[in-house]
Amino acid sequence: MAPYLLLKAIGFFLLVIVGIPGNTFIILQFTYIKSKEKKHVPSNIILSVLALANVLVIFSRIIPQSLNAIGVENLLDDIECKFVIYTYRVSRAMSICVTSLLSCYQCILIAPTTRVWVYLKSKVTKNIMGIIIILWIINFSIYPYCFLSTNAKKNVTNSPYTLHLVYCDSDFLTYTAYIVNGIFYTIRDVIFVGLMTLASSYMVFILLSHEKNVKAIRSSNKEQKLSAEIKASRAVILLVVLYVLLFGLDNSMWVYTLTLSNVPSDMNDIRIFLSSSYAALSPIVIILTNPKLHRSWILSNKHKFSQKHTGSTGTVYSVSKYS
Known about the structure:
- By secondary structure, the protein is mainly alpha-helical.
- It has one domain (about 5-155, about 160-300): Rhopdopsin 7-helix transmembrane proteins, CATH 1.20.1070.
- Helix content is about 75%, strand content about 5%.
- It has helices at about 5-35, 40-70, 80-110, 115-125, 130-140, 145-150, 175-215, 215-220, 230-255, 265-290, 290-310, and strands at about 150, 160-165, 170.
- It has a three-stranded antiparallel β-sheet with strand order 1-3-2.
- β2 and β3 (about 170) form a beta hairpin.
- α1 packs antiparallel against α2 (about 40-70).
């Protein structure tokens, strides 16, 4: 295997190995938390939907890339290509939208308790599921070209305005269609990145103000813990920074490809790796920075441990310290 293909295979397989367990863990743990607390926590719902979108990105894009890198050919037919590319486009869009929603929601939570912010907090909190459903519907409805332009790779000549997507080709036929498609989705990405950047910038401003206000208290009590909202805000900011870094590089390369009549496959591979990395790396940030996941994991393990040491009569057997 050529060094480039080996490096490509290792890179994408690492994303699969990290991404699937990480996102699955988040979904299962938040489901467990909901079953125990018997209530909907908006931030947990948003993070669960983000994890679901990430899993779809991994299955529809990273796994095909991994299989292609190790030499698996002709994996998808025309119908499967349309379905896989459509799933990837929608799930990637949801990843963008949900990350933006998370940052905006967290910004509303820690904003000063003025009348406007309190009203927004109440409305968003009550309607978080509705907002997410609307985002799904919008993203399901704006990708009709996937069914019109995407087919399995064949030994035929495509137009110069074709995106080569591993097992599939997306042929836009004309330069105008190619440019309009690229500009439309780039603008969409920029809008949502702009929203999350503004929300995160405002959160940074609030955190800095908070630091100044409690400086005297902290100087006398070094062990004082930050509030849950402040910790959550820092976690969201870290998530947004990761997103902006990876997807910013991806979109920069995408804009560059708009100037090319035939995009090299190597450049597509790099773009796919960058845009897919968020789906695999964001769960690490979420798991490391979310106290509820830590507590839920500990409690669930304790519950399993107690069940293993419980007899058929329901009595927990233990060893005496005097034995």
